[in-house]
Amino acid sequence: MIDLHTHTNKSDGTDSPRELVNKAISLGITLLGITDHDTTSGWAQAAETVRGSIGLALGSEISCLTNDGVSVHMLALLFNGEHKEMQIMLEETRDGRLPRMRKMIEKMRAAGIDISMDDVEAARPDGAVLGRPHLADALVNKGIIKSRDEAFQGMLNNGSAFYVSHAAPTPVDAIAMICAAGGVAVIAHPFASHRGQTLQAADFSDLVAAGLHGIEVDHRDQNPDERAMLRNIANELGLVVTGASDYHGNGKLNSLGEFQTAPDQWERLESLADQRRVVRA
User: Fold this and answer.
1) Could you name the CATH architecture of 98-153?
2) Please, what is the Cα angle at 27 between 186 and 249, to 5 degrees?
3) Which Gene Ontology MF annotations are present (predicted)?
4) Which end of the chain is more exposed for a tag (fewer CB within 10 A), N or C?
5) Which fold has domain 2-95+167-271?
6) What's 30's DSSP letter?
7) CATH topology identical between 2-95+167-271 and 98-153
8) pLDDT for 150-188, tens place per residue?
């Protein structure tokens, strides 16, 4: 079982890196991708927990914006965690999250919603990269909504009146940085239309030219038709096809290992990194 896209409480998941690895071991997962948003801070604890037959594909999910303002998430896997320019890019993206959150809260308060930055901070675990899920948790804690899923289908959707974009690299720039750091780039859930505006099929040619290695096809936020279209795009462009849970612990309905990557596709993806960086016991 290969699940290449998961989150811990170092970003917007609810399990610690140690808890996530232990849970993956108990489920029989053989390769786990840990891809917290714009950070590598969970890598060390996750690596310390490895035992038995499980391997870790350490990475990060990089928040990107196209020149047209479309939000895109790029999975960076197997890159050199000590690559200076990559870490600078991740840090700059994290730094843009605080002013963005303040603007979203201002919009909500102007609409009469009783929410504050203190409420969001109370919902954010210590050391976690700030994100919309923490605002969702704060709204749940105050009884304004019932769940994170409800928030992302409405108030926090990319098309919502409360949505605010933040400073982020373009997908092309992110791919170039991932490649420079020796890793592989897989675009995450690119046709998840219920999240808001998505990429178009024609957009993938520029990403491939920049060095894109794969497309996350099998994901719960993409319906069967969207998955079929992405599989065709991947096949036409010679890209690796991946599947993953996008697990967030108790934060979302996604179950660990609910979608997976085929072993042959993983072998191909791993071979495209400049080194074999899977962490094993």
Assistant:
1) Orthogonal Bundle (1.10)
2) 65
3) 5'-3' DNA exonuclease activity; 5'-3' RNA exonuclease activity
4) C
5) TIM Barrel (3.20.20)
6) S
7) no
8) 998 889 988 899 998 878 999 999 999 999 999 999 999
